[in-house]
Amino acid sequence: MTAGLRERASRVLLANWQGQSTVPAADLYPHQWSWDSAFIAVGLRHVSPRRAQRELESLFGAQWPDGRVPHIVFDRATPAGAYFPGADFWRSAAVTGVRHPATSGLVQPPVHAIAAWETFRADPELARRRGFLARLYPRLVAWHRYLTGRRALGTGGLVSIVHPWESGMDNSPAWDGPLSRVEPLPAGSFRRADLAHAVAGERPTDTDYGRYVRLAADYRDHGYADGPAIPAFAVQDPLTNALLAAAEAALADIAAEVGADPAPHHAELKRLREAMVEWLFDEGDGLLHARDVHTGQSLRAGSVAGLVPLVVPGLPVADALVRTAVGDRFRIGETGLPPSYDRTDALFDTSRYWRGPAWFNIGWLLWRGLRLHGATGVADTVRAALVRAAARAGFREYLDPLTGHGRGARDFSWSAAVTLDLLDSGKG
């Protein structure tokens, strides 16, 4: 079963490869997505380390002058109407210039340094010969400094996201409160390409999508400026900050490899770790919660994003997060498939986008974090459940966390990629 599953996962990545990068899914997501490419590189390194390097190099080739890594890089050969909002909506050339690749103006969680380091480790000789890390390191540093500089909008020096799409967990109930302040655009004023490829009951509602489009249009119309005016939606997200902290640890390793000083990255890891615990951790329920920059209030919600900080080395509240992970709200010690939202909450939905379904990439992050903090038994349960789900349901975009039934797009690249990495971790 393992050999066959590895071959199937490899075929998905090879089929979705576009010459320089990989699409998440050919029909629903026909361009390059930022954090998708990072997870894809982690799996692609087991198939072709050279392609894994090119995946990240291609993405960072579209980096903006201010250091941001855009959440979508558009393929010019793809028809303009294949995805909405497309390149014409974002008008990135007004900021980056007409010779720059067409992109969105939003960002996604900064998992890229972790992917770069893992990609390097797959074939250090090839990476050194190609100058992979030496070229990517200053771009990664600029990316992190954009986040900790331009996006430090609230107290505590934590990074803020300015759109739910930037969280990667677009439709999470955690964003319902801040989004309620945003007047949605009428459904007839935009075209939803996603509903041509996915079941409406598994996707965001038209009202929520109207809010997403308004937020994106407002950000665009203000020249993608991050300050001093704070956008209508501004949230300190635990997943984004946790991945940035973990990525700083990876940057320290990369710095040492390329002959730079790792000390600033260790210091930034420590600063972010302490700020997350001080400002986002709730001792009462054993989770980190997002914080609304406008109100200063904790967005108390049962999002799995509050467990993702397990990926941060030396996290002092890791034991509390493990207890929450195996408790009634997530029960991953029993089922292994981490739901994206609290199973005991009335808002929990097993099939709607980020409001309950399990995702392969989040499972992979939790598997790493659980192992990092010594919860190897629970980590093994998560790994086994994800591999079993891939074998039964295929490489679906997400899964019913109770039954393992596949939802969303088929032949989804990061699902195949992290499955490859999980299979490789079980060798021997």
From TrEMBL:
<protein>
    <recommendedName>
        <fullName>Mannosylglycerate hydrolase MGH1-like glycoside hydrolase domain-containing protein</fullName>
    </recommendedName>
</protein>
<keyword id="KW-0378">Hydrolase</keyword>
<keyword id="KW-0326">Glycosidase</keyword>
<dbReference type="GO" id="GO:0004573">
    <property type="term" value="F:Glc3Man9GlcNAc2 oligosaccharide glucosidase activity"/>
</dbReference>
<feature type="domain" description="Mannosylglycerate hydrolase MGH1-like glycoside hydrolase">
    <location>
        <begin position="29"/>
        <end position="415"/>
    </location>
</feature>
<dbReference type="InterPro" id="IPR004888">
    <property type="entry name" value="Glycoside_hydrolase_63"/>
</dbReference>
<dbReference type="Pfam" id="PF22422">
    <property type="entry name" value="MGH1-like_GH"/>
</dbReference>
<dbReference type="GO" id="GO:0006487">
    <property type="term" value="P:protein N-linked glycosylation"/>
</dbReference>
<dbReference type="GO" id="GO:0009311">
    <property type="term" value="P:oligosaccharide metabolic process"/>
</dbReference>
<comment type="similarity">
    <text>Belongs to the glycosyl hydrolase 63 family.</text>
</comment>
<dbReference type="InterPro" id="IPR008928">
    <property type="entry name" value="6-hairpin_glycosidase_sf"/>
</dbReference>
<dbReference type="InterPro" id="IPR012341">
    <property type="entry name" value="6hp_glycosidase-like_sf"/>
</dbReference>
<dbReference type="InterPro" id="IPR054491">
    <property type="entry name" value="MGH1-like_GH"/>
</dbReference>
